[in-house]
Amino acid sequence: MKSIFLGIDVGSVSMNIVAIDDNAEVIFDLYTRTNGQPLEVIKKGLFQLRDVLPSTYKVAGVGTTGSGRQLAGVMVGADIVKNEITAHAMATTFFIPNARTIFEIGGQDSKLIILENGIVTDFAMNTVCAAGTGSFLDHQSERLGVPIEEFGDLALTAKRNVRIAGRCTVFAESDMIAKQQYGFSKPEIINGLCEALVRNYINNLGRGKRLQPPYVFQGGVAANKGIKAAFEREINDKVIVPKYYNVMGAVGVALLAREYIKETGYQSNFRGHEAVELDFEPSAFECSGCSNYCEVIKVEVNNKTVAMWGDRCGKWTNSIGQVG
Amino acid sequence: MKIGIPRALLYYYYSPFWKTFFEELGIEMVISPKTSKAILDKGIKESVPEICVPIKIFNGHVVTLLEKDVDYVLIPRMVSIKKGEFFCPKFMGLPDIVRHSIPNAEDKILYPQIKTNSDNLAKATDILQLAEPLGLSYSELKSALKKAGKEWARFNKICKKGYLIPEANKLMQEKLVKAAPRSGDITIGLLGYVYNVYDEFVSMNVYKRLQDLNVNLVTFEMIRNKDINKYLKKMPKRLFWTFSNKLMGAGHYLNNNPGIDGIIHLSAFVCGPDSMLGQVLESETQKTKKPFMTVRVDEHTGENHLITRIEAFADMIRNSKKKRRWA
Which residues pair with A61 in a beta bridge? Predict the structure, then answer.
């Protein structure tokens, strides 16, 4: 029996699963859009994994990350539930040990991670606003009628530069419409958009930080060549997009699960591929116990409540026990 | 007679003072409940939209108290507790904000002016003006003030032994208080105004969450005045605001203390004084390479972002201390 370790990253836009073997080689990777149904896609993903893995493999550890890490953790029986920053940094330093700066742009948040000798020394995340993240690009691709997959290549064909205001997505959109009316072509508008996004990112997250090479660019948006080129122009240096750029969070948490299991010698809590067939029913209700009216999330399996969270006082959370 | 005390803004710093004061006078106190969504909503309704969330919360507490049929609500006009330093203008104008934005508040608020030269309000003699509305004598108030000052000093002393304010409040009954035990494996300085740090609603319980992550905390209340002032004396020009200066001095002390593994600045969105303070803390910590992070709080209640940030911050510190990454 060979051991494998799973990493599951449930983000706002995509759900990613990665399996690594004992030597930390990636043997399976999957990037899928959640389309608002994270649990369904986790199930499908795990089935896909089972279908491609030979039966000689055994899941020895599993970790979850991303904004849906808690729910996913309950569902699969995670051994380790980690925040995205730690997971991303782990994966990057595994592939590019001397990396100093990580640009990570996902569906609804963006992160900047600064490393020194493989250790995170500083990080920044976008605050309340989602300007300049993947969701915004998605929205614009729909509006322009250009599939998001073609966005980057098209940007590279721009002949002229056009400056689009990137501070706020609402303003960016009205600015784009105005520039279209001035007669700029679609590639030029898209290129302007890529530059605005990068400018906004560097100004917001990079403010006051010393960015040093090697630079690594990852997250779903790293597929966009236009953004990569805009980053290279902005910092005037080469930007590396790693092979598994769109599943780095999952790779990272798989590596963390591997380290955790190896050091502690624990048996994995993984519920198994079959358990995933159980019906996990997440639901939310407003607790009326006090005037906070917390939105409490409840997960049931076969009508039995297995996890609850979201309450400020812990009344519901503690009624079940530890989550994840 | 019933006096309402809003559980907001400087309540967290001065509650032992006012509690003792009114207890001594035999006046019943009604303290508003902990901040909740309902209280915040009431406050938002009675506030101008652009004002910071701590003031909105304060207004919500005042409305809640007025609904409870109290005779008066106490809203001290905080002007100064140190020579040459002031409070944020919203504190100086707080009684006026309330009078003009909350219906029927005008005749129901007591607003003694606090203009003194010490954190201890015992010598803020304007408080004696309350004798008339309270129907008591000057001398009765004077002795209550003295007792309140003593109790507050005791409270302040307990904080200095390493206790957070809620912990210090619990220890007020004890005769002898030992230095706070430290069981966490890392120590983080948590800098923020008391009404952000200790309001569990707005801070989304950040201090408890950090403690749950096995982190020891140091706040400005725990640091000796001598240590806070050391840095302030060296500054070419101080800030205008007392509590911002305290945080600045505390930040400098923590930044140069090898026992502190990192600093978190908890700040409310649109806070003017913090826009200065935050920048100074950021550039100072860059010089010493002390891990530093700003956590901004506002009306939103999305806890995910907060949890991700503080977890990652603690991970970062632990990982740089030892080689294990899943800590």
Answer: A5
The total of other beta-carbon atoms located within 10 Å of residue B111's CB is 20
B201 CB neighbour count, 10 Å cutoff = 18
Please, which residues 177-206 of chain B have a Cβ atom closer than 8 Å to chain A? 200-201, 205
Q: Choose the closest CB to B291 out of A80, A122, A293.
A: A122
Identify which of A123, A208, A257 has the shortest CB distance to residue B312.
A123
In a domain, A189, yes or no: yes
Strand (E) or helix (H) holding A86: helix A84-95
Which residues neighbour A267 within 8 Å (Cβ) at sequence distance 6 or greater?
Answer: none
Look up the pTM and report it: 0.86
Residues 6 or more apart from A277 whose CB is under 8 A from it? A43
Residues ≥6 apart with Cβ < 8 Å to B71: B1, B2, B3, B108
Residues A124 and A227 in one domain: yes
Q: What is the count of structural domains for chain A?
A: 3
Same domain flag for A47 and A103: no
Check residue A249 and report its DSSP letter: H
CATH of the domain at A74: 3.30.420.40
Q: What is the DSSP string of A139-171?
A: HHHHHHT--HHHHHHHHHT--S------S-HHH
Q: Which domain holds residue A190?
A: 97-241
Alpha carbon of B196 to those of A61, B35, B266, B306, B325: distances in Å? 40, 11, 7, 14, 31
Distance between B286 CA and the closest CA of chain A, angstroms: 9
Q: How far is CA B304 from CA A88, A309, B188, in A?
A: 17, 12, 21
What is the residue-wise DSSP string for B29-62? EEEPPPP-HHHHHHHHHTS-TTS-HHHHHHHHHH
Residue B259: both structure tokens together: 């026992």
Residue A27 in domain: yes
Chain A residue closest in CA terms to B308? A83
What is the tens place of the pLDDT at every residue in A137-160? 888 888 888 998 898 999 999 998
CA pair distance B282, B299, nearest whole angstrom:
24
Torsion angle (degrees, nearest 10) of CA A254, A260, A263, A267: -90
pLDDT tens for each residue of chain B, 327 residues long: 999 999 999 999 999 999 999 999 999 999 999 999 899 999 999 999 889 999 999 999 999 999 998 999 999 999 999 999 999 999 999 999 999 999 989 999 999 999 999 999 999 999 999 999 999 999 999 999 999 999 999 999 999 999 999 999 999 999 899 999 999 999 999 999 999 999 999 999 999 999 999 999 999 999 999 999 998 888 888 889 999 999 999 999 999 999 999 999 999 988 999 999 999 999 899 899 899 998 888 877 567 778 888 999 999 999 888 765 555
pLDDT, tens only, B116-125 = 999 999 999 9
Evaluate whether residue A14 is within a structural domain.
yes
Evaluate whether residue A92 is within a structural domain: no
Q: Which residues of A touch B307 (CB under 8 A)?
A: 83
